[in-house]
Amino acid sequence: MRAHVGIQENEMADPLAKKAAKDDTGELVCDKIPRENVITEGKEKEITKWQEQWTSSAKGAVSKLFFPHINERMKTMIQNLAEFTAMVMGHSLTRSYRHRFKIIPNSIRPCGLKEEQTINHIILNCTQLENERRILLNSIVRTRDTWPLPFEQLKRNHIKMFTKFVRSTDFSAL
Fold first, then answer.
1. What torsion do the CA atoms of 153, 155, 161, 163 make, to the nearest 10 degrees?
2. Nearest to 151 by CA among 60, 44, 37
3. How far apart are CA 159 and CA 1, in angstroms?
4. N or C: which end of the chain has fewer CB within 10 A?
5. How far apart are CA 103 and CA 72, in angstroms?
6. Would you kindly state where each structural domain of the chain is located, as residue ranges?
7. DSSP for 41-92?
């Protein structure tokens, strides 16, 4: 027995609902694809579009070293630390960033190496961070990875030690 029998508006709605549930061939389509599949497919399309925009953008060069793939970033659990965020974004902590915005007169850090103080310099070369880097390096070598390794791999495989390195770094003294 139909639930809408005897109610005029519902009687009119039934054929319209059936018509809407059919595609151009007159075949029912509403029961062919589970709702979850449609949602998942929509998310995948949006992530693909986001990845294409991320890859093609000229911005975020440092962030792309750590997070070249949007999917992987979405799966990575990261502590909410200002220093870590600034490090993987290449913002505010480095002399090169502050020089770019004319906050300081030059980007060279007199740490023994007369090179621009970038994220690469801080992680790989800065002589003032030798102790912090040695602790990070020893932890990485114990896992049989080699140093230096791509920042994406540093973030993916060694996030706890990398976060510890970032937290132990006194960026104001660099």
1. 160
2. 60
3. 61
4. N
5. 34
6. 8-56, 61-173
7. HHHHHHHHHHHHHHHH-SS-HHHHHH-S-HHHHHH------HHHHHHHHT-S
Measured between alpha carbons, how far is 104 from 112 in angstroms, rounded to an integer? Answer: 19
Q: Using CB atoms within 10 A of its CB, is residue 105 exposed (0-12), middle (13-18) or buried (19+)? A: exposed
**Residue found by looking up tokens 């990070």 in the block:** 136
User: pTM here?
Assistant: 0.69
* Two structure tokens written together for 77: 């659990």
Question: Residue holding tokens 């970032």?
Answer: 166
Give the single-character DSSP code of 28.
B
Place of tokens 């054929």: 15
